UniProtKB/TrEMBL annotation:
Gene source species: Ciceribacter naphthalenivorans
Keyword check for Acyltransferase: no
UniProt similarity note: Belongs to the TPP enzyme family.
Protein name according to UniProt: Acetolactate synthase
Keyword list, A-Z: Thiamine pyrophosphate
Domain Thiamine pyrophosphate enzyme N-terminal TPP-binding: 2-117
CDD domains, per database record: TPP_BFDC, TPP_PYR_POX_like
Domain Thiamine pyrophosphate enzyme central, chain residue ranges per copy: 191-293
Gene3D superfamilies in the cross-refs: 3.40.50.970, TPP-binding domain
InterPro entries from the UniProt entry: DHS-like_NAD/FAD-binding_dom (IPR029035), THDP-binding (IPR029061), Thiamin_PyroP_enz_cen_dom (IPR012000), Thiamin_PyroP_enz_TPP-bd_dom (IPR012001), TPP_enz (IPR045229), TPP_enzyme_TPP-bd (IPR011766)
Classification via NCBIfam families: PRK08327.1
Length: 548
């Protein structure tokens, strides 16, 4: 099925799995590489990242209900990001005696649940509990195909220990998968309607939140925006759809583009704007395009959609570009004027973001300054940057489809570090940079993550933007209560993370190179040294950067 790795955290349900792996090794049978991952959250996060850079769904195997519970946050993140994976966990033995694989230790009773799958059912597309050993090949095949079907996402298989302990004839396993994924592309008539609306628009705009699908989609969207002078807004983007310095890239603020627009193309965006703050004008027409344009997994999402286009993102954009290029422009002079206006606004937005990051005074660093410094440090490298409450996108210069990944909108913290580790496993020669807040680093179970990076030889550059607090929580409070008691308090309740641990010692415990950076003047040299450690010395590097 094209699976390279099984990310596993073993338990008492694993003896038949471990025996099978040893038997396969002794018999010379080629299998995916099984990697010991000492925390389930890291296992799911690594599968998430591996898919992002390889395009291949991987397998995660966890320990009964307790391991599945630890992996549930990762399953929610994968579901929100449309990341396919086959998630499995053992199930405590059903019987107490009389069958090989029956309960042998007290946790066999303690880990039993009436509905173990309930832990992840709302995050997975399909689930099944294995009942007979001869089902294994076909059930895995079916799960893998469903995970990779439009819209992609995780599936779950429960594995009772008694079933795993039975014998089967491996010669019955098919050499090739039985089922192909069901991949959806938009009907030509629907694409034609969207093209007609866009070509006739006076003030069109595109909202991108989760990227353009792949490199082909990235190139197609870049050409579409350029050829037809359509501004692109990256509101709360988890991936970029066009280069950040593209003349049609107008930043993250929906305004004034949303309220001015007469046609709005929303590309795979869960929440393209905030309806309590911004809304389209009454006469505007809204096109929603993506693998699940109405996001049916989410009970409340009431953004208007006058035309809903179900399609894999990349192929949908490419089809729309071809349809637009086949049409005659009814107003070339109007398009030329629009291009000039958008380019001026785009340059102003970008210049302002860079100037704000550059123009700070004093030794204390902001996140924007760190972001700009990182952008300059990786210039000329085909790098991948992740941000989980870490470096902001605005000051960065990024130019390819795999350049930027922000935490999923499900908000399961601790995502970026294991995701970066999975990316590095998929692309060993790539510089992968995980930028994250101090709270997010703690959520990532860093001791487990550093052990994995050393054991698997997957060096990652880690940048902790350390403000010793839950900055996102503070921002949310001040947004709702700008003049409230909490905003005026010397110490806002339930946000402080002081005293900050010495994160460099956590990293050094697993042979990582680690430094603290407290002064602006130190950052450039520290970044250069860290990149050298990762790319030349093949050693994880961590920078604990103090920010305001």
């Amino acid at each position: 099925m094209g699976v390279d790795y099984v990310f596993a955290n073993s338990g008492t349900d694993f003896p038949p799995i471990i025996e099978g792996l040893a038997e396969a090794a002794a018999s010379g049978i080629d299998l995916p590489q099984a990697i010991t991952i000492p925390h389930e959250h890291a296992a799911v996060g690594m599968a998430h990242g591996y898919y992002f850079l390889s395009g291949k769904a991987q397998v995660v195997m966890l320990h009964t209900n307790v391991g599945l519970a630890n992996g549930a946050i990762g399953a929610l993140n994968a579901a929100t990001d449309h990341v396919p994976m086959v998630l499995m966990s053992g199930r405590t033995p059903t019987v107490e005696r009389g069958r090989f694989g029956a309960r042998t230790v007290p946790i066999g009773w303690g880990q039993e649940m009436r509905d173990q799958t309930a832990l992840v059912r709302e995050a997975v597309k399909w689930d099944y509990e294995l009942r007979f050993p001869e089902q294994i090949a076909e059930i895995l095949d079916r799960g893998h195909a469903i995970a990779n079907s439009t819209p992609k996402g995780p599936v779950y298989i429960s594995l009772p220990r008694e079933v795993l302990s039975e014998q089967i004839d491996a010669g019955q396993i098919a050499e090739t998968p039985l089922m192909a994924p069901a991949v959806v592309d938009a009907p030509a008539a629907v694409i034609d309607t969207a093209a007609d609306w866009l070509i006739g628009a006076k003030r069109p705009v595109i909202f991108v939140q989760r990227g353009a699908g792949d490199a082909e989609g990235f190139a197609a969207l870049s050409a579409l925006a350029s050829d037809f002078a359509i501004p692109v807004v990256h509101y709360w983007a988890t991936q970029i759809g066009i280069p950040t310095d593209h003349p049609m890239s107008v930043g993250a603020n929906p305004e004034p583009w949303l309220s001015e627009a007469d046609v709005i193309l929303v590309i795979d965006a869960l929440a393209p704007w905030a309806p309590d703050l911004q809304n389209p004008q009454a006469g505007a027409r809204v096109i929603q395009l993506g693998p699940n344009p109405l996001f049916s997994r989410f009970p409340v999402r009431n953004f208007r959609s006058d035309l809903s286009i179900v399609s894999e993102t990349s192929s949908g954009i490419s089809a729309l570009l071809a349809a637009l290029r086949a049409r005659r422009d009814p107003d070339p002079e109007g398009r030329a004027a629009r291009r000039e206006t958008v380019e001026q606004r785009s340059q102003a937005v970008r210049s302002q973001a860079i100037a704000a990051a550059e123009g700070e005074a004093g030794p204390v660093m902001s996140k924007a300054f760190v972001s700009l410094s990182l952008s300059q440090a990786i210039a000329g490298r085909h790098a991948t940057v992740l941000s989980e409450l870490g470096c902001p996108l605005a000051p960065m210069t990024l130019d390819h489809a795999q350049a930027w990944y922000q935490e999923p909108h499900s908000g399961g913290l601790g995502w970026s570090l294991p995701c970066a580790m999975g990316m590095k496993l998929a692309k060993p020669d790539r510089l992968v940079v995980a930028t994250l807040g101090d709270g997010s680093y703690m959520f990532a179970n860093p001791v487990a993550c550093h052990q994995i990076m050393e054991a698997c030889e997957i060096p990652v550059l880690i940048m902790i933007l350390n403000n010793a607090e839950w900055g996102a929580v503070r921002q949310s409070v001040t947004m709702l209560y700008p003049d409230g008691y909490a905003a005026k308090a010397n110490q806002m309740p339930l946000t402080g993370l002081s005293p900050s641990p010495d994160f460099t010692k956590v990293a050094e415990a697993s042979n990582a190179w680690a430094r603290k950076v407290t002064q602006r003047s130190e950052l450039t040299a520290a970044l250069e040294a860290a990149i050298t450690e990762v790319m030349e010395n093949k050693r994880t590097a961590l920078l604990d950067i103090r920010v305001a």
